[in-house]
Amino acid sequence: MYSVSPQQNSEATRPFLTWQRIIDWAQEHYRVRNFSKDERVPTRPGLLYLVQKGAVRLVGTAQVNATGSNTTRLARISPEEAFLGFVGTGQPFEIVAQSPFTLQAYAHVDQTSVVWMYWHDLDNWPHFRREVLDAFRYQHQRKLLWLSTLGQRRTIDRLLGFLTLLIEEYGEPTDEGYCLPFPLTHAQIGSAIGSTRVTVTRLMGKLRQKGMIRTQGDNLLCLPTDSVINRNEGALNRP
Question: Residue 21 belongs to what domain range?
């Protein structure tokens, strides 16, 4: 039914002593920092980052041509942001620079703690290096599923596929089914699936009416367990 993410698996199998040694090393070398909600995490290419606590939101920014409204109709360059996903507790991430695209990381919840190191620092913990590489391979596989979802023609199919992938990876069991442990705005969802906030709001209402999604507490998104079981049997009927 629900796949077990490397985050859940690594926390269950990783020797506690190894993880604690890494945290102690990071604190000793001033390689760990806490962030408030929506605070930008300073990053640079070539470094490895580990989320010790909380969640990090990855955002991509591309420079796109936009037409000016003045009489000369001069072209100008304006940034366009896209939500690229989360990095959960115990998981690694890195930032790659490729013009004209830039990647940025933000703390998605309060008290998010991030460790940074050079790749060669992992030579001190060979077993943990293997875990990091396995986690990156898993993230690559999930991105392929994400791209497959974004290839759906109908926006509502992209929306449901996107929510399903997120909740499969980060969802926690509740009375409502499986729910994201942190909020996600309609604008962020829209940027992820190539739509607008208004369209996402309208389609979320439709999904709620069909019982495909639910909300709990502070607008936390949930998928009923039966929806996950039956999602491959044809999620929605065409109008």
Answer: 1-125
